[in-house]
Amino acid sequence: MDYSSTARARTSISTQVYLIAGLMLLLGVGALWLFVTGITDALMHRAAGADFGAVLLRYLHVNGIILPLIELGLGLYLIRLAARFLRRDLRAAMWVRQLLLWGVVASTVFVVQALGSALATQMAATEAYMIPVIGVILALTLTYAYLWIGSNIEKFEGQETLAESSARFAWNLLVPTLLVLVFVALRPLEKTFIASLTDQRFAAGADAEVNFVGFDNYAKLLGVRWDLVQCTTDDTGACAVDESGATVFPRARDVLDETYRDLRYREISTWLTLGGTKLIFSARDTNFIGSIGNTLMFTVVSVTIELILGIFIAMVINSKFPGRGLMRAAMLVPWAIPTVVSAKLWTVILRDNSSGILNAGINLIQRTLGLPEESIAWLARPETQIIAMIAIDVWKTTPFMALILLAGLQTIPADIYEAADVDGANRITQFLRLTIPLLRPTIAVALVFRTLDAVRVFDVFQVVLAQKQYSMATYNYYTLTNSQQLGYASAVGVVIFVIILLFTVAYVRILGVSAE
C-alpha cells in the first residue's frame, strides 16, 4: 500500500475542508460586519451630537428593520455551521452544499445585473467589467466547493434522516417564495412602520423636513380613557334636571384634569349612568376610534350572516335537484358584479323617499295594513348607515362564501351519511356531528378570506357614505389625501394590519386549523 499517497489524499481533503469552512466563516463574519457597521455608523452620528430621534430615523431609513435581523441571524448561523463542518459532520456538509448552491444562483444573478448596468451606463472598459469579473470568480469558487462536497460526501461522518433531507428540499422551494415575500410584502410594511414613527407630510417634496416622533402617532390614534363625571347640582345640592326630566351633566373637559384638555380628548359615548354619576368613554381621535367600531361591527355581523347563509345555500346547491347547474351559475351573479356598481345600485334601492325601492315596498306594506306611511332615511341616519353597509356586503359576498363552502362539502364522502342513516341519526344530528366537524378547515379558510376583506373594506363605505361614516380604510384614505399626514396615515395602516393579524391568528387557534 502506498502510504505516502494516502497521506497526501487525506491532507488534500483536510485542506479542502478548512478552505470551505473558512469560506463559510468569512461569509458569516461579513454578515455580522454589515450588521455592526450600521450600528457603529449610528453611534458615530450620536457621538457627534446628533439628536437620538434623528440618528434612529437615519438608521432605519438606511438599514431598515428586516435587513439587520437577517444579517445578524445569517452571520451567527454561518459561523456555527462552519464549526460543525470542520468536525466533518454530514448534516452540516449537506447544509453547506445547499447554501453554496444558493450562493451560485445569487452570484450568477449579480453578474448578469452588473453586466446589464455596465452596458446601460456605457462605463469605461476597465470599470465596466471589474465587478462582473469579481462576481464570476465568486460564482466559480462556490461552484467548485459545491461539486467537491458532492464528490467527497462519504468522507463526512454521521447520518442524515429522511426528515432532514426533506427539510432541505422544502427550503429549496421556500427560498424563492420567502424572497418575494420579503421584497414585495415585508419591505413595504417595514417602510410604512418607519414612516409611522415620523411627522412626514404627503407630497411635501424631497427637501421637506421629517422629524422622528416615536410612538406619538399611535398614542394619539389609540389614546382612550374612561372617566366618572358627577352631575351638575342645584342650590339644594341635588342633581339638576332639564325640561325633559333628564339629569344634567357638565361637559367632561370642564370638570376633568388638565391632561384631558391638553391632549384634546373628546367624549364619544356614555357607558353607564347610575344616579348622579355617569361613566364616559373619551378618545383623542374620535373619528379613528369610531372607524374601528364601525369596521368591527361591520366585520363581525356581515361575516357571521354570510357564513350562516353560505352554509345553507351550499347545502342546498350540493343536493341533487333539476336545474342545479343553473342555480349555481345564478347565485354567483351578485358576486360577479363590481363592488362600485353594486354600491351605486344599492344607493338607488336605499333612497330616503318613496323613489327608493326598499322604502316603496315598506310604504306599500304600511298602506296595506292601514298604517301611516313613513320612509326611512337609511343612508342619512347614523343608526341605520352601518346596517345598510352590512346589507350591501351580505348581498354581494354571500355567494363567494357559499362557493368556498360548496367546494368543502363536495370533498365529504357520501358513504358516511349513508352509515349515519343506518345508525338512525337524523338530519340535524348529521349536520352537527358530521358536516360541521368535517367542514371546519373549509370554514376557517372562508372566514379568513372574508374577514380580511371586511376589515379592509373601503369601496362600499367610500361610494355610499364617503365621510358620513368611516371605515378604517376610508379614514386612512382621507387622513392621507385631505390632511396630507403621511406619518399619521401610516400608523393607521399598521393598526389595520395588526387587527387583521389578530383575526387570522384567532381563527387558526380557535378552529384548530394547525392541528388538521
Kindly describe this structure.
The protein contains 20 helices and three strands. It has three domains: 2-195, no CATH class; 224-284, no CATH class; 287-511, MetI-like fold (Orthogonal Bundle). Strands 1-3-2 form a three-stranded antiparallel sheet. It is 70% helix and 4% strand. A hairpin with a 2-residue loop joins strand 2 and strand 3. The longest helix has 45 residues, at 3-47. With 516 residues, it is mostly helical. Helix 19 packs antiparallel against helix 20 (486-511).
CATH architecture of the largest domain: Orthogonal Bundle
Taking the alpha carbons of the first and last residues, their distance comes to 60 Å
**What count of domains describes the coordinates?**
3
Beta-strand residue fraction: under 5%
Q: Give me the Rg, rounded.
A: 33 Å
Mean pLDDT: 85
Name the CATH superfamily assignment of the largest domain.
MetI-like
Q: Which runs of at least 5 residues are low in confidence (pLDDT < 50)? A: none
From the 3D structure, determine the CATH topology of the largest domain.
MetI-like fold
Largest sheet report: 3 strands, antiparallel
- Provide a count of the helices: 20
What's the shape? Answer: extended
Proportion in helices = over 70%
> Within the largest sheet, what's the order of strands?
1-3-2
Quantity of strands, as a count: 3
Give the class from helix and strand content and strand pairing. Answer: mainly alpha
Listing every helix as H and every strand as E from the N terminus to the C terminus, the arrangement reads: HHHHHHHEHHEEHHHHHHHHHHH
CATH hierarchy, class of the largest domain: Mainly Alpha
